[in-house]
């Protein structure tokens, strides 16, 4: 799944692709029209979250811009520690749960995947290509098929006949019980992307280190890790967005344990229980969206570079 | 506030401890394994580097996939073998017909629309002087969860009875244009296409960013040479630009096909699969976790898997070719 043809990226691309297909002004206008259309739905949510409850059900959100009437009441309601919103302590505990779930669920798979990718790229052995293609193929296993077997593993262990292969782990309903599945499900894509990048590191560098007698562990720490930062950052964005926005894995593995629900799940639940409380729902939704947006915009310059540099040499 | 921190500080502590333990265990293993030398060094390195990933994949994906394959030939309680009954039901049941039809619609339409629109935007962006803000705005929906997206789009597709004010964007526009809006998400087969719009909205930015990078990597001298030969506009695009980015285009298309097949959240969060909008991945969840028919759910998973195999084979062939060039 190489994303680019193997061409040298030119520093100055003067006569580029569609240069003659559209005039510069026409292109700008079309792109901006699409960008505005793309933003309107999100703007509607954002605007609604600042409107008083009564107005939301009576007039469309665009009226906020026609007759400005802002309120921060919705936001103070969802963060209030007295039960204004109907949930004790407001949504802040769920924000914290989301961070507690997401940060390790990003660090664990990236570390393990970088190690595996280095091994498959530079410590080749008989069958290592087969292992690589096998891992690549696992990307398409729908995670729905893995939920029940994993849940059984956590609560009852694995038995073949009467022989216990793995004892019950008792980690369902704990944070560890969410970190582990997220780590497992992230590995195929992570190993694939990082392998692309790491295998394109200069061969001379690796050979020089080997001649100097550095062990694979030293090479990994001193050379591979520092040079792989763009790819690691790109995957960090992917994985952060995926875990923060995940519904299915958390729904299955929190097992209804109230203390560890992440924000996105709470939001999905509230969409049912709050029903007509659009003022609370939209402001909570906006908080849910805000965090990944910040992560995304602060790391986006790595995104393309890290994803593509494996295939652009 | 103090009870708040009493509840929540331990969680943060648990998180920090987990990360610290994970990293120090690794450091210790690296330290010990790094001291081995001579012949043992390579096998030890392979086990340490690859072992954790393989164990996790074995229990997390490979084992469950094999188990699902076996379950698809068993009955609802997974006790008796039923041969191909589940598959037969899948392809003959009238309600499943709608699900399969929708899935086919999704596969035929959304990947090509998303990737095509992404390509158009990439070409346009290339023609612009300053692109960053517009580009970020179009890319932004990718960071929004489908639960969030379903709430966002609720304000677009919302419908109210004729005698009430319309607060949904499309309903309001329809009324301004002089006709009474339909109840968008309940009207078949319109609702399936409206859900596709959410997917296109969320994924076009990804296609655009990748294709935009591919277009920028087309060597300038090729462009100049063909421009001198008199290739302009559409001919330049068809003759030079598209062939140069074709492999990227197909990879993005394949990624979208896989994403479409696994699609679950949009349907689940906006209609729950009701009103004739369900797709295979959603039905699989309902069958397994709501109707508790593990056999039928497993059979659907296997059909999904089989549908993705051509994409997978194509990608692996591509990958092998590139690795031999490299």
Fraction of residues in β-strands of chain A: under 5%
Going by helix content, strand content and strand pairing, the class of chain B is mainly alpha
Name the CATH architecture of the largest domain in chain B: Orthogonal Bundle
CATH topology label of the domain at 92-308 in chain A: MetI-like fold
Helix content estimate of chain B: over 70%
The level 1 CATH classification of the domain at 92-308 in chain A is Mainly Alpha
Strand arrangement, major sheet of chain A = 1-2
SSE blueprint and pairings:
The complex is a heterodimer of chains A (313) and B (326).
Chain A: H1 24-48, H2 53-58, H3 63-66, H4 73-79, H5 92-122, H6 128-137, H7 144-156, E1 158-160, E2 163-166, H8 176-198, H9 203-211, H10 216-227, H11 229-245, H12 248-253, H13 263-273, H14 278-308
Antiparallel strand pairs in A: 1-2
Helix pairs in contact in A: 4-14, 5-8, 5-11, 6-8, 8-11, 11-14, 13-14
Chain B: H1 2-35, H2 41-71, H3 85-92, H4 94-127, H5 132-139, H6 146-157, H7 169-176, H8 190-216, H9 220-228, H10 233-261, H11 265-270, H12 280-290, H13 294-325
Helix pairs in contact in B: 1-2, 2-13, 3-4, 3-13, 4-8, 4-10, 5-8, 8-10, 10-13, 12-13
């Amino acid at each position: 799944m190489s994303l680019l043809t193997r061409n040298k990226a030119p520093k100055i691309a003067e006569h580029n692709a569609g240069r003659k297909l559209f005039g510069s002004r026409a292109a700008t206008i079309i792109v901006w029209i699409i960008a505005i259309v793309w933003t309107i739905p999100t703007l509607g949510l954002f605007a609604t979250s600042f409107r008083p409850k009564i107005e939301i059900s009576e007039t469309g959100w665009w009226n906020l811009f026609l007759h400005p009437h802002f309120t921060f009441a919705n936001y103070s309601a969802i963060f209030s520690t007295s039960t204004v919103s109907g949930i004790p302590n407001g949504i802040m505990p769920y924000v914290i749960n989301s961070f507690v779930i997401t940060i390790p669920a990003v660090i664990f798979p990236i570390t393990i995947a970088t190690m595996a990718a280095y091994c498959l790229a530079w410590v080749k052995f008989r069958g290592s290509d087969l292992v690589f293609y096998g891992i690549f193929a696992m990307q398409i296993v729908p995670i729905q098929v893995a939920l029940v077997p994993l849940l059984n593993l956590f609560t009852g262990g694995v038995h073949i006949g009467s022989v216990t292969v793995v004892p019950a782990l008792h980690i369902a309903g704990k944070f560890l019980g969410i970190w582990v599945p997220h780590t497992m499900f992230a590995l195929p894509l992570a190993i694939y992307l990082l392998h692309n990048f790491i295998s394109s590191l200069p061969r001379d560098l690796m050979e020089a280190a080997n001649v100097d007698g550095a062990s694979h562990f030293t090479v990994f720490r001193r050379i591979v890790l520092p040079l792989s930062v763009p790819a690691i950052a790109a995957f960090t964005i992917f994985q952060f967005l995926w875990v923060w926005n995940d519904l299915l894995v958390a729904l299955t593995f929190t097992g209804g344990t109230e203390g560890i629900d992440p924000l996105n799940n709470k939001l999905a639940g509230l969409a049912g229980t709050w029903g007509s409380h659009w003022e609370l729902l939209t402001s909570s939704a906006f908080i849910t969206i805000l965090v990944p947006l910040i992560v995304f915009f602060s790391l986006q310059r790595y995104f393309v570079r890290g994803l593509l540099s494996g295939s652009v040499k | 506030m103090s009870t708040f921190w009493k509840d929540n500080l331990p969680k943060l502590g648990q998180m920090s401890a987990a990360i610290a333990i994970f990293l120090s265990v690794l450091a210790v293993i690296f330290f010990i394994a790094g001291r081995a030398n001579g012949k043992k060094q390579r096998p030890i390195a392979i086990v340490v580097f690859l072992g954790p990933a393989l164990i996790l994949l074995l229990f997390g994906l490979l084992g469950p996939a094999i188990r699902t394959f076996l379950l698809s030939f068993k009955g609802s309680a997974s006790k008796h073998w039923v041969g191909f009954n589940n598959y037969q039901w899948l392809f003959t049941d009238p309600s499943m017909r709608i699900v399969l039809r929708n899935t086919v619609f999704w596969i035929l339409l959304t990947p090509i629309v998303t990737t095509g629109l992404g390509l158009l935007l990439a070409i346009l962006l290339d023609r612009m002087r300053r692109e960053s803000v517009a580009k970020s705005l179009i890319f932004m929906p990718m960071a929004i969860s489908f639960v969030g997206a379903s709430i966002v789009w609720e304000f677009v597709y919302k419908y109210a009875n004729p005698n009430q004010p319309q607060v949904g964007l499309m309903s309001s526009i329809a009324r301004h244009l002089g006709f009474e809006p339909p109840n968008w998400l309940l009207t078949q087969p319109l609702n399936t296409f409206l859900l596709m719009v959410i997917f296109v909205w969320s994924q076009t930015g990804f296609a655009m960013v990748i294709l935009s990078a591919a277009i920028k990597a087309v060597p300038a001298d090729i462009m100049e040479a063909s421009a001198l030969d008199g290739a302009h506009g559409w001919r330049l695009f068809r003759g030079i630009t598209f062939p140069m980015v074709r492999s990227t285009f197909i990879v993005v298309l394949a990624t979208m096909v896989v994403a479409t097949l696994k699609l679950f959240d949009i349907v689940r969060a906006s209609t729950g699969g009701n009103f004739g909008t369900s797709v295979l991945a959603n039905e699989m969840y309902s069958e397994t976790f709501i109707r508790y028919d593990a056999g039928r759910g497993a059979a659907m998973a296997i059909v999904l898997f089989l549908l993705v195999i051509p994409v997978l084979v194509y990608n692996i062939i591509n990958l092998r070719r590139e690795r031999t060039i490299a």
